[in-house]
């Protein structure tokens, strides 16, 4: 099974332009407790490099693009986030890395939990040890 779980958001468009509405437990498959966005990422910078024990997220690039790499300890897959109508579901215990941010990239994340640093696994060796258990 692919690690890349794509969610298509239907744009509500009319002659004025487009609008996407994201609703918890509907287009987003969990209750949304937190929203954050990453922007003004410097050129050549990579982010992420961690997994979460419990947190689920949906990532959508509302402007610009970046490349998301997911790894579950067995396989590693990459996908371009390059559309405001394309979300990627990132399940718990999946390692993520983000690369190649365009200058205008605004990466929006919808999260199933409040921020908790104790939920992060930031060391890849620890992550592999945990998933192989
Ligand atoms: C993830 C990827 C996609 C907070 O205080 N509250 C928050 O809600 C978040 C997300 C971060 N922070 C603090 C923690 C760090 O001191 O902001 C700082 C930067 O966070 P971090 O280095 O974890 O950023 P990224 O871009 O590497 O990872 C972020 C999320 O943290 C992570 O959950 O899945 O984006």
Defining key terms:
single chain, about 130 residues, mainly beta, Jelly Rolls, five-stranded antiparallel sheet, 10 strands, globular, binds dTDP-4-keto-6-deoxyglucose
Strand order of the largest sheet: 1-7-4-9-2
Q: Helix amount, in percent?
A: under 10%
CATH superfamily: Jelly Rolls
Major sheet size, sense and barrel closure:
5 strands, antiparallel
CA radius of gyration: 15 Å
- CATH topology term: Jelly Rolls
How would you describe the shape?
Answer: globular
Structural class assignment:
mainly beta
Average pLDDT works out at 97
SSE order: EEEEEEEEEEH
Low-confidence stretches: none
CATH class: Mainly Beta
Helix tally? Answer: 1
Number of structural domains: 1
End-to-end distance: 20 Å
CATH structural architecture? Sandwich
DSSP strand count = 10
How large a portion of the residues is in β-strands, by DSSP E?
35-45%
